[in-house]
Amino acid sequence: MSQDWLRTVFVLIPAVSAYTIVLGSLSLVSTLFDRSGDFGHRCARAWSRLILKTSGVSVRVTGLERLDSSRSYVFAANHQSIYDIPIVFASLPFQLRIIAKESLGNIPFMGWHLRHAGHVLVDRSNAGAGVVKKMARLVDKGHSLIVFPEGTRSVDGAVGRFKGGSFVIALQAELPVVPITIAGSRDVMLKGQLTVRPGDVALTVHEPIETKGIPRESARDFADCVRAVVAESVG
Asked: How many domains does the chain have?
């Protein structure tokens, strides 16, 4: 048994469980008086920072100066690890709502937080107009969205194909899309493995891509363009 495995099982898992229960409960209670989910988002950021600190994961963020804090964006990131979610929440100073698969909503505390704090959980077999409307309402409230257009974590770290459907709301609402490159998170926790290893992660915020005038029928080609920007700096 490696030292990293022992640390994961006897230190990290109990600590993350405690963070999730405490901050998830606070987030759930907050929905009784804060329907916007903004307090829940602060809980999510605190949860993310605690997980990264306890795991020994340091994140170097570059490119934030390219963003306007008064605007809403759709952030599109590659997906190397389950750690990508806390990495993004801890790194981006925006009110974020994620677009994730429906099954995540069944996870105790974390899933309950996702359902009640305004995040968008999508049944991939039945993603209809209701999902688009919910995403549009979030944007109207000044929230930004984070999507992982590959749809699943990469096995080898390479950037997979970006799904065009991930960008339909951005094109319909004429929201700028911000490509995000995450490099190094795969080494923190490999897909299919339990062991967490301390490490350094780089998160690069690329120049926002304006979508005004791009028809939704061009979502497939647009997705390829965003993927090209992300993939170029994965390393």
From this structure: 1
